[in-house]
Amino acid sequence: MSITQLQAAGRKVGEIPRPIPAPTYLPGPDEMPVDFEQDRPETEPDLNASYRAKADNTYSNIAGPKGDFAIATLEELGFSVPATTPHRGGESIALKRLEDIFLNEEYAATFQKPNTSPTAFEPQSTTLLSPMLHFGALSPRLFYWKAQDLAEKYFQWASKPPESLTGQLLFRDMFFAAQAAIGSPFAQTLDNAYCRFIPWHLPSKVGTKEIGDGAISGEYHIDSPLAETWFKRWKLGMTGFPFVDALMRQLRAEGWIHHLGRHMVACFLTRGGCYVHWERGAEVFEELLIDHEPACNAGNWQWVSCSAFYSQHFRCYSPVAFGQRWDKEGEFIRKWVPELKDLDKKFIYEPWTAWKTTLSEAGVKIEGDGLHGQIDGTYPAPMFNFKERRSVCIAAMKRAYSIGLHGDDDKMKNGAWKKLFDEAGETEMEGSIFRWKPRQLIRSQSTVPEEGPMDRYVKKVKR
């Protein structure tokens, strides 16, 4: 499915209705009888259990803990740690933000999502209306018609879908439509006829009594201890690649990162480095994103991993060059990776390339993996040589594409795929990375002086 196909189907349905005006009063309970069975939501698994205090407070009174109908605070709900996100919800805030965006008609009419910066903060470079749409605080029809009316007013120079504001809603609807057509397998590889089978690391365990044989269980096989370590470091923002770590730390603190940042970290976890299953990343985003939509999340992870929707697997985001394109000074990294805040911009995207004396002057020491507590003044060494890993991943993707299995293939389900990949010369994904050491570690063990032209020195380093 593509945006073009969605637009063609939409034209057959007809024009999108304009939003209905807000009611002038709310009907009483007698005027709105409940005509459906009410079921209590499932309470397991409880993803918030680790954040909640021992006292698990619940309130059966609709007026809330103070009887004033106010929204309960995190403390009243039993959470001892305050919210870290600066983003606030609610219809009043959503409508005010929408109004502010469209007051700047030039910005709204010429908005192009690919040209917005993933490193902008306070404020972000995009509308940040996705959480409002997710929670129902903002009507998508109201958003659409605000943007559409403006596009028609400035027709000659207004941006067009998919880059425009209306294009962002179309992407949302495209994934909704794909999920509606495919059903529950859309959020997984198994039984998904449109998702390519790629033998990623950390594959999902399948089937239980509770969920049936055709669904993933939420648990996964650790087929590679090294890949499991990489996955854990990625989740915590401790990969040793500062731009990746800054994005993952922003996600963990704010529950939101720019869509290009999402693409960057998703590519890095899957086909651009770690070769870890996209379902693992989708689960992390599901837990942390405040604008998480099941269809959009699964669809985008399939897109970026080149499992579906997109097939140019040889085009990978660089964890160094991509961030430098948007933020040459490294201010985004300085905010979210404060260990490196005093490092010169020449090295902030690749601290392992800095001289030992340069690191010492900035109060930085490259060591550890960040998984067992981080000592002040330290930053973890990079997990691997990105260029080597990218080459290994591209070769593996090319092999998977040539074999051409999908999620509904019997060979994928019965394990026969292993023989196919063996015959095609599948190589061990962990490869030569055990022999690689960051340049800084090599320098500290060599007899080469720590002063001098870097380029001339690097040529002499044997990896």
Average pLDDT over all residues:
87
Q: Report the CATH superfamily of the largest domain.
A: DNA Cyclobutane Dipyrimidine Photolyase, subunit A, domain 3
Which CATH top level class of the largest domain fits? Mainly Alpha
Assembly context of the chains: single chain
Order of helices and strands: HHHHHHEEHHHHHHHHEEHHHHH
Largest sheet: 2 strands, antiparallel
Going by CATH, the architecture of the largest domain would be Orthogonal Bundle
Beta-strand share of residues:
under 5%
Strand order across the largest sheet: 1-2
**How many structurally independent domains?**
3
- Please compute the radius of gyration using only Cα atoms: 25 Å
User: Count of helices?
Assistant: 19
**CATH topology-level name of the largest domain:** DNA Cyclobutane Dipyrimidine Photolyase, subunit A, domain 3
Q: Count every beta strand, where a strand is a DSSP E run of 2 or more residues.
A: 4
Unreliable sequence segments = 427-463
Q: What is the CA-CA span between the terminal residues?
A: 44 Å
Shape: globular
Reconstruct the topology from this structure.
Elements: H1 3-13, H2 91-103, H3 105-110, H4 130-134, H5 140-153, H6 165-182, E1 204-208, E2 212-220, H7 225-236, H8 242-254, H9 259-269, H10 278-288, H11 294-304, H12 321-326, H13 331-336, H14 356-361, E3 365-366, E4 378-379, H15 386-403, H16 410-414, H17 417-423, H18 439-445, H19 454-458
Parallel strand pairs: 3-4
Antiparallel strand pairs: 1-2
Helix pairs in contact: 6-11, 10-11
